[in-house]
Amino acid sequence: MPFEFKTTRRVEFNETDLAGIVHFTHFFRYMESVEHAFLRSLGHSVVMPGFNPPIGFPRVHASCDFRHPLRFEEVMELHLLVAEKRARSLTYEIRIRRIEPSPTVEIATGRLVVVCVSKTPEGRMEAVSIPDSLASQIEAAPGELLTLPPLPR
Asked: How far apart are CA 52 and CA 68, in angstroms?
């Protein structure tokens, strides 16, 4: 069962500020894009109407710690690890590394916590258990692979 996913992408000009450095808001977009790619690798999408009732995964926590700048045309690796899998939520640890030009440098580390929800007949979102067919495809990464401390409960 997968507990990690990696992909690469190049920094686009429109993601940078006047100094040619990636604006901090784009790091949250990068984290979301690697989550979507992870779900696609499992045969799903972030939009999940195929479940009865349809489900979604809104964020209840998002954070990012920045270590080094990332610049236009540099290539990054986005590395997602499932830090925690609970009945109704997933916690992702996401590492962003510059891989070109070398040497490889850790740029940022982020965390996303998403909760499985469905809409009630009244249209309210309500937390529900992750469907077995999806939950069975995902496992938490071994603790020794994780770098961020657990979130308080």
From this structure: 44
Interatomic CA distance for residues 67 and 17, integer angstroms: 17
Among candidate residues 76, 81, 78, 70, the one with its CA nearest the CA of residue 148: 81
Which CATH number goes with the domain that contains 104?
3.10.129.10
- Band (pLDDT 50/70/90 cuts) for residue 96 is very high
Convert the pLDDT of each residue in 17-56 to its tens digit.
999 999 999 999 999 999 999 999 999 988 888 888 889 9
Provide the number of structural domains found in the chain: 1
Residue 55 token pair: 């489900």
Cα–Cα distance between 104 and 122 in angstroms, integer? 50
Widest Cα–Cα separation across the chain? 54
The two three-digit tokens of residue 86, written as one number: 């609970």
- Whole-prediction pTM: 0.92
